[in-house]
Write a structure and sequence with these properties.
Elements: H1 15-38, E1 43-45, E2 51-54, E3 57-58, E4 70-71, H2 72-87, H3 93-108, E5 118-119, E6 125-127, E7 130-131, H4 132-149, H5 153-169, E8 179-180, E9 187-188, H6 190-206, H7 209-226, E10 227-228, E11 233-234, E12 237-238, H8 247-251, E13 252-253, H9 255-272, H10 277-290, E14 302-304, E15 309-311, E16 314-315, H11 316-335, H12 339-360, E17 377-378, E18 389-390, H13 393-405, H14 408-413
Antiparallel strand pairs: 1-2, 3-18, 4-5, 5-6, 7-8, 9-12, 10-11, 13-14, 14-15, 16-17
Length: 414
């Protein structure tokens, strides 16, 4: 996903120096501002003051908001964030990860392997529905926590949830139900994408073939149902038989999900050896041609299957996924001895990271929003359009930085 022309941000600097600059800038923001803030202010406390899990969201003043619920997916995402931070040396992050894991397990884990969708302000189950999106993030977080601790319990929990998915939510037409108990509505691509992310991480940490089987089934679903031949676009909503939805819902294309699949297909090929990069290139091409704002370098939230712009706004998470996808495509270009594309990808990476640091991520000098927080949404004019600070964005930021931080060997090779 190219984010504009090759124009180094600092005149006269090399691309390698520019990459190191944005790597260091994003690292400093995460470890000096974001993690100290979210490990304290961003943690939820009981009425007696005892720290429990993560806050669902904050007000624009930086105080814990009280929406009346917390989603299991938010707890899982923060378990991932603090597990990653602990592995990279942030003091106290391991304790916070353990606390979140304990809170999730105590309040949200069901005996049959499912997980509640919503908890109330006291930490009790508000909605016991098993939501595939939430389950996918629980599995993903358990994988990262297992890698951090080396303990068997997170992997045991993940295996128990896989049995639940197979027994209760698997569909004869492929994939899984959106929720259990079932509810009417379109089948959705997005939770299956995140389930693939979880399966790959669980296979990587455990080498348990059950996760490889699941990953391959989900990639087969992608090949045969989710990506549309002809338009090379990824559907969001589908009939029970995986025919793409009709009307506005069927026309919807989210470039951010294209970018996520680019990263996942590369990860799948790396871990399991299946040839999936050609599919990644097809997804990448749609976004390169249709989804990037030429003046800002921001990836837009929504286009149509013909490439027409449907929503010119730009969520934070979409930019972090573009960052990850360009890191993948840079490595591919470097490996294929394509210096023109490799350098173009580096320029895109620099521009996207600079956009994150200057448009979305709140720095130490801010007098409006608390340093270490973020602006989750820009409108079509690249102006903030927010009424809260959602905790859930940190997962995307951390994942984007982890990918960016691994880029040094490829930079040196170009």
């Amino acid at each position: 996903m190219l984010a504009g022309p090759i124009t180094p941000t600092r005149p006269g600097s090399s691309q390698a120096a520019e990459i190191r600059r944005v790597q260091d800038g994003l690292r400093a923001w995460i470890f000096d501002l974001a993690l100290p803030f979210w490990s304290t202010v961003g943690m939820d406390r009981s009425r007696s003051g005892q720290m429990r899990g993560a806050c669902e969201q904050l007000t624009l003043a930086g105080a814990p908001a009280q929406p009346g619920f917390t989603r299991m997916r938010v707890q899982a995402r923060q378990l991932y964030v603090f597990s990653e931070a602990a592995a990279r040396g942030f003091e106290g992050a391991g304790t916070i990860a353990a606390r979140i894991h304990r809170f999730m397990t105590r309040e949200g884990a069901a005996s049959d392997g499912g997980w509640a969708r919503l908890l109330d302000p006291d930490g009790h189950v508000l909605d016991p529905t098993n939501d595939l999106y939430d389950l996918a993030f629980v599995l993903f977080a358990l994988a990262r926590y297992a890698r951090l601790t080396g303990e068997p319990e997170p992997l045991r929990q993940a295996g128990h949830t896989l049995v639940f998915l197979r027994q209760r939510m698997a569909r004869s037409s492929g994939g899984f139900s959106n929720v259990d108990p079932p509810q009417p509505g379109w089948r959705q691509q997005n939770p299956h994408m995140h389930l693939l992310e979880a399966a790959l991480e669980l296979f990587d940490v455990s080498r348990d073939e059950r996760w490889a089987v699941l990953a391959r089934q989900l990639v087969t679903l992608f090949r045969t149902r989710l990506i549309e031949r002809g338009s090379d676009t990824l559907g969001e909503y589908f009939h029970e038989s995986w025919l793409r939805a009709v009307g506005i819902d069927g026309d919807k294309v989210e470039p951010g999900h294209h970018a996520e699949w680019v990263w996942l297909l590369d990860r799948h090929q790396t871990l399991l050896g299946d040839r999936t990069l050609r599919l990644a290139r097809r997804l990448d091409g749609i976004c390169t041609r249709h989804a990037i704002g030429p003046e800002t370098g921001l990836m837009r939230d929504e286009i149509g299957r013909e490439g027409n712009l449907r929503r010119g706004s730009a969520r934070l998470w979409v930019q972090t996924e573009m960052l990850r996808a360009n890191c993948v495509m840079h490595r591919v270009a470097a490996a294929n001895s394509d210096p023109v594309d490799a350098r173009a990808r580096l320029a895109a990476i620099v521009r996207t990271t600079d956009n994150l640091l200057t448009r979305y991520l709140v720095g130490a000098e801010s007098k409006v929003l608390p340093p270490g927080t973020w602006i989750d949404q820009l409108d079509a004019f690249a102006q903030p359009a927010i009424d809260k600070i959602p905790t859930s964005s940190f997962y995307h930021i951390m994942a984007g930085w982890v990918e960016l931080d691994q880029l040094r060997p490829s930079v040196d090779a170009v």
